[in-house]
Amino acid sequence: MNEENDGGGARSGVSRRNFVGGSLVAATVAPLLTGQAETAEAASAATVDGVTPVTVRAAVNGDPVTLRVDPRATLLDTLRERLDLKGTKKGCDRGQCGACTVHIDGRRVLSCLTLAATASGHQVTTIEGLADGDRLHPMQQAFVDHDGLQCGFCTPGQIMSAVAMVDNEGPARSDDEIRERMSGNICRCSAYPRIVDAIREAQQVMR
User: Fold this and answer.
1) How does DSSP classify residue 87?
2) Whole-structure pTM over 0.90, yes or no?
């Protein structure tokens, strides 16, 4: 066959032979490129900076959660950035202020010093999960009643720490004991007297 008479291909500059040949090449190469892209994407998903993510399965505020996380990720960042639970505050990010306090299996922990991977298989509770629907937890209500909020930044951590303190250690017998037990939670507004009043009242209800 004369390529010059090949269906006008010569006029367009593309002959049937070239077209068919090009299509075969494309048909052969395309899957390879697609496969390479998929492989690269899978590899990218499997590792971040050469670190393989780990799977975390936990119950957060009663809801089952499954996440692939960097094994270096803190529970604090995972709650705030991956699960959009912004109630837990990032204060010093060094475990010194208590603003990031949450519960794991009912016990207070500093989420900025806790790896998210270690929460797998456990119950995690944040300030968002403390109330019963529209009804505030007695500790939340007491903080409102006694104006223990001030700027509010430390309040979620204060409340979570206070709830776990009373639940696990029992009611404090004096204001000094409340202050001692809550010494890991810092209030930059110095609302300590009102916070102590709130805890003293709430622990009466929580008995």
Assistant:
1) T
2) no
